[in-house]
Amino acid sequence: MKQQPLKKWLLAAGIAASCATAQAAKVEFFDEIDTGPTPLSVEQHRYLSFGEVMYDYYRHANFDAINLLLVNQQGALFDEDTEYAELLLGDLYVTYGLPYKAETIFNRLLKKDILSHTRAQTWLHKAALHYRDGNHAEAAMILDDKKLDGLEPADEARRKLMLANIFMAEGDFTGALDYLNDVPVETDEGRYATYNMGVALIRGGHEKQGLKLLNSLLTLPASSDQALALRDRAALAAGLTQLRSSELDGAQASLRQVRSDGPFSEDALLALGLTNYRAGAIKRALPLWLEAVSRNSSHPSVQEALMLAPRAYEELGGMPQALAGYKYAATQYREALKDLQRAIENIARSGWAENLLPEDSNEVGFLPANSEDLAHGGELSYLYKLFSSNTFAQRFQNYRQIHQIKTMVEHWERSLPALMESYQIQQQALNRHLPNVRRQISLHQKEQEQLMMASDKLSMSIPDFVDMSNPGDVANAEQAIMWKKVDAMANQFGRLPGSSHANALRLRRVRGLLLWDIAHQSMEQREKQIQAAAELADETRILAERVAAVSLQIRDATLRTRDDLGQRLSQQQSRIAEIKRLSEQTLAALEQSMQADALALLQANQKKLADQLAEAHLAVARLQDTSVSGDTKQRTGS
Predict the structure, then answer these.
(1) Among 586, 80, 636, residue whose Cα is nearest residue 353
(2) Cα–Cα distance between 386 and 595 in angstroms, integer?
(3) Angle at 477 between CA 473 and CA 480, to 5 degrees
(4) Half-sphere exposure (CA, 13 Å, Cβ side) for 594?
(5) Which of 13, 174, 309, 427 has the most neighbouring CB atoms within 10 Å?
(6) pLDDT tens-digit profile of 437-491?
(7) Is 171 left (phi over 0), alpha (psi -120 to 50) or beta?
(8) What's the CA gap between 323 and 327, in Å, rounded?
């Protein structure tokens, strides 16, 4: 019966040992697979950042794209070896009117050993730079060279169009046609090139060839508003050309293809009425002019029709209708002069150019932000030639870009006081807390060093073999407590009450069983002690690294209290003020130049309207005099 507890204990120990062996032999699959985040390589970082740049570029946010490129250059992510970023930066420099910086990049790329496709694109960008600056000879020399071989179809069409435009500017229409024949006319670029070539040929005296090109556009299918408008414009240009050449039948056939609700319908109505008038069909011309008169009276063609319609009535013998028509024309001219005067006063005000800016700063189309107000007041009808002028559009583009710079500088100006205040608060907090932090980290360093020494001492004190001379050193916690109690009882057994021989035997058995139990698990306990000592050493090492990291941060914070950031922020204030002043001066100069162009155009229209108003009054007086003289003759005769 006394051996039952011992047998149970041995059975439990055996089961525990087998479980421990099974646990040690357990295999964990996929334990070497890293499921954490994978760090990106430098090239991956580059492509990711360049993707953000291209997103801004394709949504026409060129200002954001160039800023992001320059920021990545400062961060050494992009450099002179990242050709794709350099090429895009050069293209953006061209867009922002910085040709010298763009040419520096292009020349640097061309000196390097880059891909043939990239080299061809670089040459194309450099040619476009010369083309934009008006250096047509230099641009043509590059564009007509074999070093541009291998361009993509879109870039190849762009190359041929630039060459065709250069030849047209020089009057070499045969050379221009050779390049235009290879450009697909179904594309928007091909349509515009064909139209420009047709108009250029007509102006150069090659009327038949020009009309042939314009008529080729009339048979093309058009699905977009842009293509439909260009087709109307081609039909109008062909009709006006034939009208000037007195080819009335051909002019009528071309003009009838202009849509009645298109942007060129007023011009077509006026011209179609003139073809009938010159053909002697005044009755067929009159309805066309009456329809034109019902349109927007601020349109130049409508203003011409205001005088032609009553003249047709007059030639047809409808004197009352003619008189009413001349009076109506005079009324419309007076209203148009009032609109023009309001437009002149509006343009002369400060901030007129800023009102033309689109609400979305990234919008690419040249549509004024207040286009509805301009159209309602008639101002847009008089300024459409100015808005469609390449010179004015380029000047306004520069105005938009500088306005974006001014907006960004104003944002910096508003942010700078907050940055300076944040810097001062940070400096005060660092100066206040750093002394105490230094003392605390010094104490922690000493404690960590003591802990490391104790850990090393503990690791060295573990013997290489199991030493049972001190059983408590190889026992677990419960066994160590039990051994301490049993050993104390054995040392004091003679002085304890009940120290009989039987109890001495019992104590000896318990002591023996405990020693056997400790010895049985001594190997396992020794391995646990070695493992615990190693873990303690690792934790001590990690703690040392953390203390070192905190010490490094304290050193960085100390250096931060001694830097010159506050001084540099103060210097930026004056720099920002200077940039803002220069931006405002440039914007004022550009606005003044645009205002001068707009006012000159409006004043020319004002003079023309005044002449037309005088002509209408003279016509009214003439008809009234004719009517009075006719009545007088009639009364005299009776």
Answers:
(1) 586
(2) 11
(3) 50
(4) 30
(5) 309
(6) 889 988 988 888 888 888 887 777 766 666 676 776 777 778 778 878 887 877 7
(7) left
(8) 6
